[in-house]
């Protein structure tokens, strides 16, 4: 599974990353977690704002920090669909 966290490293971006890592640990899922901080790379991902979360190429959220339980549901869905690298 590939997880991308987009943002410049602000408090909200760090909170999103923490929630993602905790959710992965609680679900005992393996994932490649990539932080994208460069403005050009973020723009290339076609998101409307940061922080943003992309799982296996699918934009899950942008412009807010989702709760860990919401992230866990997205991760479960991607794992059931046989996300790459899982």
UniProtKB/TrEMBL annotation:
Family matches, as InterPro entries: Thioredoxin-like_fold (IPR012336), Thioredoxin-like_sf (IPR036249), THIRX-like_proc (IPR005243)
Domain (Thioredoxin-like fold): residue spans on this chain: 1-75
Protein origin, superkingdom: Bacteria
Xref: Pfam families: Thioredoxin_3 (PF13192)
SUPFAM superfamilies from the UniProt entry: Thioredoxin-like (SSF52833)
Membrane-spanning intervals of the chain: none
Family matches, as NCBIfam families: redox_disulf_2 (TIGR00412)
Protein name: Redox-active disulfide protein 2
Organism: Dethiobacter alkaliphilus AHT 1
């Amino acid at each position: 599974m590939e997880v991308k966290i987009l943002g410049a490293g602000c408090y909200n971006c760090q909170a999103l990353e923490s929630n993602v890592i905790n959710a992965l640990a609680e679900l005992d899922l393996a994932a490649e977690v990539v932080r994208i901080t460069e403005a050009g790379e973020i723009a290339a991902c076609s998101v409307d704002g940061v922080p943003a979360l992309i799982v296996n190429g699918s934009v899950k959220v942008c412009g807010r920090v989702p709760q860990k339980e919401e992230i866990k549901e997205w991760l479960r869905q991607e794992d059931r669909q046989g996300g790459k690298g899982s």
